[in-house]
Design a protein that fits this description.
The complex is a heterodimer. In chain A, 26% of the residues lie in helices and 32% in strands. Chain A has one domain: Sandwich (mini-chromosome maintenance (MCM) complex, domain 2). Chain A contains three helices and seven strands. In chain A, a hairpin with a 5-residue loop joins strand 3 and strand 4. By secondary structure, chain A is an alpha+beta fold. By secondary structure, chain B is an all-alpha fold. The longest helix of chain B has 26 residues. Chain B contains six helices and no strands. Classes of the chains: A alpha+beta, B mainly alpha.
């Protein structure tokens, strides 16, 4: 038997998901000020913290032989280069506000901005 | 269709599993979104069809095939596929059992996409920690368009798939 396309229950499901996303958005990101440090973390290793006020470019050795270039400039940080296949991390672009993060799944590398509002990070770290 | 493992059900399940792998591969050719793990999930259409028109074991077999296929993209991709796939299957099965015809294709698609994203997020959070908090709202939000697209696709293709 063929299913209906859209019924009242569907509208309730969509509305509930949108509400959950909105609540999550407010809780996780609500007006975070600019961060002060970038935390570069390779899975299984100790995180390294860089000051966002010091422009620099660092090379990060990720898992499975992947290599990433992290650039800090004008109080922002981004993954500028990566040898991973999809380069989702590079497409994430510049990060400046506390809580923002770029994640590279294949290389196990995350770059996260902290120091602006540590409220979220303090709870979840 | 009967729950009994007939040659027909076996063949249909195998065809759907092959279709799921092909759709996964085709979708991988699209440019990635700047959100780790975010995809349209077109392969989920086959799981939805199996769940609503074949049987839940068929849907489970297709999910298992997808998870194994993800091994080609690395251990982490496989783990994330497993987290998303299993949670998505469970959520859609429960929604289908509880709501039956009261839930349309789009609702089922959104439930599946949401559970898939939550499952993937949990695996990613276990691996990457705090950095994933930033992506939680986007992944919830993206479940809506992804679910609408997969639900529409199911609606359009199910008359043809039913002729298998």
């Amino acid at each position: 038997m063929k299913k209906a396309l859209f019924r009242v229950t569907d509208a309730v499901v969509v509305a509930a998901v949108l509400l959950a996303a909105f609540v999550c958005l407010v809780l996780a990101r609500g007006g975070a000020p600019n961060g002060k440090q970038a935390v570069v973390h390779v899975a299984g290793q100790s995180p390294i913290t860089y000051d966002l006020s010091v422009p620099q470019t660092v090379t990060v050795a990720g898992l499975h032989g992947h290599s990433l270039t992290v650039t800090i400039q004008n109080g922002q940080v981004r993954i500028a280069e990566s040898t991973c296949p999809d380069r989702v991390c590079v497409h994430t672009g510049w990060l400046s506000r506390g809580g923002q993060a770029a994640v590279c799944v294949p290389s196990g590398v995350t770059v996260r901005v902290v120091g602006g509002s540590d409220a979220v990070d303090g709870v979840t770290a | 269709m009967s729950k009994q493992l007939s040659t027909r059900n076996l063949t249909v399940t195998a065809l759907l599993a092959a279709l799921a792998l092909a759709l996964s591969f085709l979708e991988g050719l699209l440019p990635p979104l700047p959100v780790p793990g975010a995809r349209l999930g077109l392969a989920n259409v086959t799981v939805m069809f199996a769940l609503t028109s074949v049987s839940w074991p068929a849907a489970a077999v297709i999910t298992a095939a997808k998870v194994l296929f993800a091994l080609f993209r690395g251990g982490m991709a496989c783990l994330m596929s497993a987290g998303g796939g299993v949670l998505s299957l469970l959520a859609m099965w429960v929604a289908h059992r509880l709501l039956r015809e009261r839930l349309g294709s789009i609702g089922l698609g959104v439930v599946g996409a949401l559970a898939h994203n939550v499952g993937q997020w949990l695996v990613a959070y276990a691996t990457f920690g705090a950095a994933m908090v930033y992506y939680a709202p986007i992944l919830l939000l993206l479940a809506v368009p992804a679910g609408i697209v997969t639900g529409l696709t199911l609606h359009v293709t199910s008359p043809y798939l039913s002729r298998l």
